[in-house]
Structures are given as C-alpha cells and as structure tokens.
Amino acid sequence: MVAGPRRRGAALVKALHSAVLEELDEVGLGRLTMDGIARRAGTARTTLYRRWANPGELLLSAIGEAYPVEEPSPVAGELRADLIRSLELLVEWARHPTARAVQAILAERRAHPELAARLDELFDASGRRFTATVLDHHARLGTIAPGSVTPLVENLGEAMVVKHWIDVGREPDREYLVQIVDQLILPVLGDRSAVAGPCAGP
Amino acid sequence: MVAGPRRRGAALVKALHSAVLEELDEVGLGRLTMDGIARRAGTARTTLYRRWANPGELLLSAIGEAYPVEEPSPVAGELRADLIRSLELLVEWARHPTARAVQAILAERRAHPELAARLDELFDASGRRFTATVLDHHARLGTIAPGSVTPLVENLGEAMVVKHWIDVGREPDREYLVQIVDQLILPVLGDRSAVAGPCAGP
C-alpha cells in the first residue's frame, strides 16, 4: 500500500489506469484482480468497484482512454497525407502500454471471449480500424467513390503494419507507411496516380 | 525410449520431424535439445547429429518439408483462381504443426535471431510469400504489369489472412479469401473488373 495524498477525479482514474496496465504486465490477463490493482495503486478496492464491475472493465477503460482519434483534413486534396498520418498514429499508439493490453486480450480471446467482444465494441466506437475514419471522411467529401471503402479496404493499412511487425520484429519506418498508402491503399481506391499501371492516366 | 524397428532414410527423417514438433509444443523453442528430440523419437542423439548441427536446423528441416509449393495454372486467364487457390493453400498450411513452429520462431525472434534469419532464407527459397509465385508467373505471362508486383503487393494476401486470425481468432472462410482477391489484390494490380471504381470500364 502506497501512502500518499488523496487523489480524486481524473488524477485517480489516471493512477488506476497505470496500475491495471502494470499489473497486467506483471501477472497476465488471467490473474488480474481488483485487489491486486487496488494494492498497486495504493487505494481501496471499494474505490475501484465504485466505477468498474471487474478488472476487465477497468482495463478496457485504460485502453479506451489512450486510443487515438484520427483527425482528417477538412479539405479534399489531403487524402494521401491523411492516410499516412493515420498509419503513423497506429505506429505511435503501438508503443503505448495499452497496445500490449490489446495484444494480450486478442491472444487470449478463447479464454476471455466477453472481454474480446467488449474490445471490438470499443474499436467500433473509436472509428473501427486506423485509416477508416479518414476513408469515410474522404468518401463523404467525394474524393473517393463511397462503394470502394469496404471493411477489407479499411483493414488493409493495419494489416500491412501488423504483418511488418510479425515478419521483421520491429515497427515499420515512415517510408514503409508511405509505400502502403501509395502502392496499396490509393490504388485499391482507384487512385493510380502513385503507381504505373493500366489505369494510370497519360 | 521407444523400442521399435530400425528406421532409415525418409521414414527416419519423418519420425524426427514429428519428434521435434512435439518437443517444441511441449517444452518451447528455448528448451529444445538434441537429447530431448532423440529420446522422443526413440533414437540415438548421434543419429540426429549425422544430419543436423543443432535442434534449430532440425526444426527448420521439418518446416521446409511441410511448406507447400504454389502451382499456378499454365494459362493466362486463371490469375484470379490461382490467387484464391494460393490463399487457400496458406489457410491449409496454417493448420499444420509447422505453422505453430514458424509462429514460435517469429514471436521469439529477439531470443533466436539466427533461427529467424534462416527461416527468412527458407521462405525466400520456397517462393517468399503465399501468392508471390502466382504473381510472378502471371507477370511473366503478361497478364499483369511486371512493375505492379512489389514486395508489398506480394505480402498483401498473407497480411489480410494473418490479420483476420488476430482480429477474429479463427481461420477465414473461402468467401473472405475471395474478397481479398477481388477487393484488394486484383484492384492493386490494375484489374478493376471485380469492383466498381473510377478505373472500371463501361
């Protein structure tokens, strides 16, 4: 138990978010308890139960708090820059401790199906996949044909970044993100200006 | 030690491949030993050393043996069918115990960098990514523009299948593989016949 000044509101929530993430790294998803998190945060278990029903809800709250929001440019000409920025946001987020928490939940999906389902809801509420918010925005602006933004197209950027991690064991550099946008996402959307191909204009 | 008839040649290699995969599932990559594998296979450690220098080489031999080879159609009109078949081959291979071995090596890349590097060599020799052999073949036939087959394009199909596994926790069905080909790979190659988009013909 850590003695300290009494924390309230945002400061308390922040401390509890840190505590659940540290506890997760140390004991793993299957052994998270309200007791353990409370002890680590130096607070009473009842304080946790006032806001969250169980350790999973507290963990989801930490994940939601750190999950970034894409902010597409208001102008139509910025599709390419917005897509690159979305993928940079993904790479930045992946350095945050909550990215490890997401990985843990997905890896142990069978053992914790209800937590994985709640995580899916959280992603849906936060704009689904990285690049999806940008794609929807530019479809509304008319930069891209609305029908071309399918769930698979929305998942393409994330899939290539995640695959890079698996194959190479480290985060992709900016040049790789640019290639994902120029060689894959823009061509799939029907914008072949970035690559040579049969659809490219003269 | 399992007593049994003396095995030679292909039968012996097959038994040792099974033994290394079982041993991996039980003790993990970091604790594979020639002793443990030999004991499991009911053979002498010297028998293993006659062919392989260490447990990693024996594991790579098992992975290489089970790794499937894509066989593209000799005719030009079969690009779409060949791509779907490549992704089906990937999903089938992923059910094999050596797919878990590949996953283990990639996940522990930092602890076993030399093994991960040898795995990359093995993939390069086996046609790199799933779909790459098919893409190269059809580029030679002239079905697709040679410049459109970049390393990222070659990795696209695998990336979408792997991402599906991570997101959903189970293998994709055939319909999903067809969508990967129709909504992503063919459009990226400049074939927009499968989707509505600004490049599609009348």
UniProtKB/TrEMBL annotation, chains A, B:
Q: Which residues form a coiled coil?
A: none
Q: Which domain of life is it from?
A: Bacteria
- Is-annotated flag, keyword Amino-acid biosynthesis? no
> What Gene3D superfamilies does the record point to?
Homeodomain-like, Tetracycline Repressor, domain 2
Which residues fall under the DNA-binding region feature?
Answer: 33-52
The UniProt GO MF terms for this protein read:
DNA-binding transcription factor activity; transcription cis-regulatory region binding
Keywords, A to Z?
DNA-binding, Transcription, Transcription regulation
* InterPro entries for this protein: Homeodomain-like_sf, HTH-type_TetR-like_transc_reg, HTH_TetR, Tet_transcr_reg_TetR-rel_C_sf, TetR_C
HTH tetR-type domain location is: 10-70
Can you name this protein?
Answer: Transcriptional regulator, TetR family
User: What is the scientific name of the source organism?
Assistant: Pseudonocardia ammonioxydans
